[in-house]
Amino acid sequence: MSEPETENYVDFVPIESGYVNRLCSRWGLLQPASRRLLRIGLLLLVTWVPLVMLTLIQGHTVGKSVSVSLLRDPQVHSRFLIALPLLEIAEAFVAISLAIQVRQLIESGIIPVDDLPKFEGLRVDVRRWHHSPQAEAVMFAIAFLASLALKLTVMPDVQSSWERPGESISAAGWLHILISLPLLYFFLLRALWVLILWGRFLFGISRFNLQLTATHPDHAGGLGFLGRGLMTFAPTVVAFSTIVSGGLAYEIYHHGESLDSLKYHLIVYVILLTVLVHLPVVAFVARLFRCRMFGLLEFSNLVWRHDRAFDEKWIHQPPSDNEPLLGTSDVQSLADIATAYDHVNEMRVIPIDSRAGIGIAVAAALPMVPLIGTEIPFQEIIMKLGELLA
After folding, report:
1. DSSP-based helix, strand, coil % in the chain, nearest 5
2. pTM to 2 decimal places
3. Are 296 and 266 found together in one domain?
4. 117, 383, 68: which is closest to 249 by C-alpha?
5. pLDDT higher for 98 or 131?
6. What contacts 42, CB < 8 A, 6 or more positions away?
7. pLDDT grade, residue 2 (50/70/90)?
């Protein structure tokens, strides 16, 4: 069986996949990048601008007519002016990056030729789930019901006063509950859906007879690019953290919380989000453990034979006068095979990358940095930095 053209395996979750993206593509709002910026503008017109207009009419945008006016609500602005546009931009970034990683699985030879039909079937199955209108409909329903439940049933008392200036919910509050929040939740769910599908895809790949190499310098059998590729989700992580940061800022400014009292919440959040992003590559633990174990056994035998031959030639028998010890390639060979054994011994059973892991953690923590200003005024921070630089 001949190997199919790799061009057939370029995409994983196409940018135009899904009903919403197909609709935007039909309206010319998908490509090029300038059209996506227009799409972001339309999202703001639907989610944030109407809130400003309605609160202006009701007199709840600024001033002291309510305890928390719209412009003093950090949750709204972090969600719809930062997080939602980031999620929109991250979608294309993730699609391109995952496509590159899928192509690398083929071109690297990790997927054997005999498994290519199964690989294609798995890829088509994952694409079908991502392309499914039913999946998007379920996400829309979950997003809508979650907004209603959180605002009307589960946590009705946490609404900003511009949403509920009295006993009843204002017009802006209803628009926030029925339109703005469901759209935000839908984008969050869609981002999580892609991560779930990527995990499902990698789990399926891990069942194949992968051609892994224990001596690969990436210390992951040749799968190290998957660990580095997790940085793909950094913009999505920033968007999630921006939402959390806005909620914490609201608690600090309007409910009397302090950053010091919330620091452990932040630490646990950053750790959990970093672990969540790394879950897809955990699928290869068994395969890489097997590769490392057999690699150590095989190389132990190889090293024993090599070192035995070296001892026989240079230790147990006097060297020939025609072959001086200094400069001999045998010594270099001894060092080379020891290096190869070290590569196997240092092999990781999870294809994670330390720099990518740090990058994800930084992306999760970065939106929290402005919260420092709630404890220390930014003017004081800048002046202190100026003193250090002087």
Report:
1. 75, 0, 25
2. 0.83
3. yes
4. 68
5. 98
6. 29
7. very low
pLDDT in tens, 143-167: 999 999 988 876 655 566 788 887 7
- The residue range of the domain holding 303 is 212-390
The answer to whether the CB of 70 falls within 8 A of the CB of 172 is yes
Mean pLDDT of the chain: 83
Size of the chain, expressed as the number of residues it contains:
390
Cβ–Cβ < 8 Å for 171, 58: yes
- Structural domain count of the chain: 2
Domain check: are 66 and 202 in the same one? Answer: yes
Name the amino acid, one letter, at 194.
Answer: V
State how far the alpha carbon of 208 is from the alpha carbons of 31, 77, 345, in Å: 36, 46, 24
Question: Which residues, 6 or more positions from 44, have their beta carbon under 8 angstroms from its beta carbon?
Answer: 80, 81, 84, 85
Nearest to 150 by CA among 122, 181, 108: 181
How far is Cα 300 from Cα 203, in angstroms, rounded to an integer?
30
The set of residues, in sequence order, having a beta carbon less than 8 Å from that of 27 and lying 6+ positions away, is none
Both 202 and 224 in one domain: the answer is: no
